[in-house]
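Propose amino acids for all 64 sites.
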C-alpha cells in the first residue's frame, strides 16, 4: 500500500467513530480530545475507508 491515512486534527471533534470502526488504526488520545492514527499503513483498507466515509466532519484523508 503506497498511500497513508491521516487525520486533520484541527477539524476532529473526538466523536470516536473512527476508533469504533477500525481500532487497529485509529485511537482517541489519552484525554479524548482528538483522534490519532496509530498505524498509517496498517489495518484493513476497507475499514479505513469506512471510517473515512463515516467521520461526521470528514477530517480523515488519504495521502499518496
Ligand atoms: S471520526 Fe472523525 S471526528 Fe470522529 S474521532 Fe475520528 S477523526 Fe475525529
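Proposal:
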Amino acid at each position: 500500500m503506497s498511500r497513508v491515512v491521516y487525520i486533520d486534527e484541527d477539524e476532529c471533534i473526538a466523536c470516536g467513530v473512527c476508533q469504533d470502526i477500525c481500532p487497529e488504526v485509529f485511537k482517541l488520545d489519552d484525554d479524548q480530545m482528538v483522534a490519532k492514527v496509530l498505524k498509517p499503513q496498517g489495518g484493513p483498507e476497507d475499514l479505513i475507508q469506512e471510517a473515512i466515509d463515516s467521520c461526521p466532519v470528514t477530517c480523515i484523508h488519504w495521502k499518496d
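The two ends are 9 Å apart (CA to CA). Residues 7, 12-18, 26, 35, 55-57, 59-60 surround iron/sulfur cluster (CB under 6 Å).
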